[in-house]
Description:
- The chain is an alpha+beta fold.
- The protein has a single domain, classed as CATH 2.40.50.90.
- The chain has five helices and six strands; from the N terminus they run αβββαβββααα.
- The protein has helices spanning 5-15, 62-73, 102-108, 122-137, 151-157; strands at 23-32, 35-40, 43-49, 77-85, 91-97, 100-101.
- It has a five-stranded mixed beta barrel.
- β5 and β6 form a beta hairpin.
- It is globular and about 45 Å long.
Amino acid sequence: MKKYRPALLFLLLFLLPAPAHAWPAMVVDVADGDTITVLHNNRRIRIRLYGIDCPERDQAYGQNARQYMAGLAAGKTVEIDPLDTDDYGRTVALVSLGSLCLNEQMIKAGYAWVPRHHCRQPPRCAAWRDLAHRARTNTIGLWHDANPVPPWAWRNSHR
């Protein structure tokens, strides 16, 4: 059995996915509160912010969310920490500007939900849900509305 250990170890290391590494990129477009386009190595890459869902452009508070994100990131160099690729081919990522996590900033500003189907990292997502609850309790951002419509419900009603 000992003579097979190096081969088994090599096989396991070969089959395990390589960890994704964060990389810098300049924000060149803000589509909405949770989707940006960045320039990295002369390539434009669409980024969907992990774990959050912001109002759509034509939805109540959609323009506010877009403008808030643009104020945070437009024209700036951010750090992209890719986690996945979505059904539309966008890179799903944590996006940071210095020590600020932009995903989290959108929640704190009251412009994002933290749906369970988007956010599946227990410690981080639980903390983000607490931040969303605080924003709602303090009627920040879209939580000024008594019954804001979640973006997924808004999208379903406009198909």
